[in-house]
Amino acid sequence: MSSESAPTLPGDWLWGNLKDFNRDNLSFIESAARAGDLVRIRFGPMGGIFVNHPDYVCQVLAARSKSFRKPAVVKRALNDILGENIFTSNGASWKRSRQALQPAFHRRHVDRYAQIMLDCAERELCGWQADSIVDLEAAMIRVTMNIIAKTMFDADLGDYADELTAVFTRLFHLAYKRMALYALVPNWLPTRDNREVKRLTAELRHLLRRYIAEWRAGRANDASLLNLVLAPAPKMSDEQLINEAITIIGAGYETTAYTLVFTWLAMMQNPAVMDRVYAEVDETIGSRAMTLEDLPAFDYTERVVKEALRLYPSAWGLSRSTLEPVEIAGVTLMRNSMVLVSPWTLGRDPRFFPDPLRFDPDRHLKENAASIPHYAYIPFGGGGRTCLGIRFALMEAVIIIALIAQRLRLEPEPGSASGPKSVAFTLRPNGPMRVKLSPRNGAANAYTKPASAGSRLCNTHNGMSPCPHFG
User: Fold this and answer.
1) Cα separations in angstroms, 330 against 2, 3, 4
2) pLDDT tens sequence across 228-248
3) Which of 39, 207, 298, 382 gives 20 to 30 Å between its CA and that of 412?
4) H-helix or E-strand spanning residue 158
5) What pLDDT digit, counting tens, does each position of 87-126 carry?
6) From edge to edge, which strands make up the β-sheet containing 133-135?
7) pTM of the entire structure?
8) Domains of the chain (ranges plus CATH)?
């Protein structure tokens, strides 16, 4: 393909494709995907390209990643919220953050977090009653926020979980508004939105500073992620820790919460899939308490989560900009050109996923997954910036789904969401996620059999104390 033959997506003479993009992200990227594998786009003064083929995505995210960086607009929109951290930084600064955080997400540590995940999920389910109605979206956000806070700081949020979630949600919304306007309004200008960002950020940083002070005073246990982050990097300042923590918490609760929401939505729309999940849960743990050793047996449940991530990737778009002139398949991108990649369109492309809208967890069987081009399935990104928390997120989702499925069947209430919409940086359901809880056979007898010593995952709903690992 020559530079001249690359199609250009039609747009406004002044704003290019920016208005269409902001009006409906998903419709925009779908129209770009229909136009070709490499399509020229323009957001205001910034020209660039939409990349929609695994071979070309590999060039951007991995093979030639040193020629690309996070776009300046991302940093301008987020610098007063996140500071310099693993999400916003490039080059040596990004590498230092990555090296500091990576050991904390090693498999041997992530397996220890399973204790926290089940304990927090149990506490959430204490308030669930058979034949009642639950706001599934709010519940999944609450439990994942509690998990990441407990994992990161050994902190019990209690009633503050909802308040902290509201702060993050509002900050995400305001940050996305800045990006939608291409960060043309300086962050220091005292607009109403900028004043609100300043207030919410100060509140958030104050809370995180308190948690870090408690950790430094020695009141956090050895299982906290913060201990593991600082072990190889003891000289990391409190402010840098806060910068990293905001991203870890923000990404750690929201993306997993909505992965859970869409996994349940997909299961409710595909009863045969849901029945197989229930059967796997019954066969694996029956009515006894779950243990860490049980997790590998939830193979089908994990494949269900992976398939939900294919159809409903939490982050529907990834962006980069070029550090130098780059040629991809004959198309030349000048320095500072924008590059947009979409896990949403890649995961729904019939060339790589036959009958792409069919929900089929068996696509992710080892023998079937081998035929999927690696960069066609990128719900966690790709290359050097692949999400550090892949194993953490998958294990968390499987534990929460299995624990709910062990005792309850979920049925959508009339008028509930039927699919996704894009909101800010993530996919959200296109309506309320209110579900009716129906008891399953044997659910009333759950956890009557104690697990073996040393491997028991915490059980709080029957009055037992938290594990000693939680202080």
Assistant:
1) 5, 6, 9
2) 766 655 567 888 888 888 888
3) 298
4) none
5) 888 888 888 888 778 877 877 777 778 888 999 999 999 8
6) 133-135, 434-439, 408-412
7) 0.89
8) 18-470 (1.10.630.10)
